[in-house]
């Protein structure tokens, strides 16, 4: 049995976690390599994509908040933020109620790059989904909310 926090149902080793992990890994790898045809990978590394996605959802995060939410060392996040500022993807701004602190926000360039990346990925996924039968597409559509809940739970577990 897998250990869980108090009050959480325990799951057995046959809960599908291994299979799900393997599929997620394969999906990320396949999508990352196939989308390179439409969107040069080197132009926007995955760590930067994840920061842009986070800042689109939660504008004005501080470096420490980004580090905590992405489970990364603050100095690593600071280095990534410096690169992204240099590339014009984000800007640093003073925090209104604490002039010593800074927050980061997307620039129009950053939003455009994120939109381009998202569209390239959506095109690839749509092409792949079109090659599946109706039952498989329906199963994926039904699974998406549960997968979103799983992702949120993983974030909550920290």
**Which segments are poorly predicted (pLDDT under 50) over 5 or more consecutive residues?**
none
Neighbour order of strands in the largest sheet:
1-3-2
What is the mean pLDDT?
Answer: 87
What is the CATH C level class, in words?
A: Mainly Alpha
Amount of beta strand: 5-15%
Output the CATH homologous superfamily.
Winged helix-like DNA-binding domain superfamily/Winged helix DNA-binding domain
The number of domains is 1
Shape by Cα distribution: globular
Protein name: HTH marR-type domain-containing protein
Pfam families: MarR
Keywords: DNA-binding, Transcription, Transcription regulation
Organism: Gordonia cholesterolivorans
Task: Considering the chains and any ligands shown, give keywords for the structure.
3-stranded antiparallel β-sheet, Arc Repressor Mutant, subunit A, globular, 3 strands, mainly alpha, 158 residues
Write structural notes for this entry:
The chain has helices at 17-35, 46-57, 63-70, 74-86, 108-130, 134-157, and strands spanning 61-62, 90-95, 98-106. It has a three-stranded antiparallel sheet with strand order 1-3-2. A hairpin with a 2-residue loop joins strand 2 (90-95) and strand 3 (98-106). It contains six helices and three strands, in the order ααβααββαα. Helix 2 packs across helix 5 (108-130) and helix 3 crosses helix 4. The mean pLDDT is 87. The chain has 158 residues and is mostly helical. The two termini are 20 Å apart. The chain has a single domain (17-157), classed as Winged helix-like DNA-binding domain superfamily/Winged helix DNA-binding domain (Arc Repressor Mutant, subunit A). The protein is 63% helix and 11% strand. The longest helix is centred in the C-terminal third of the chain and has 24 residues, at 134-157.
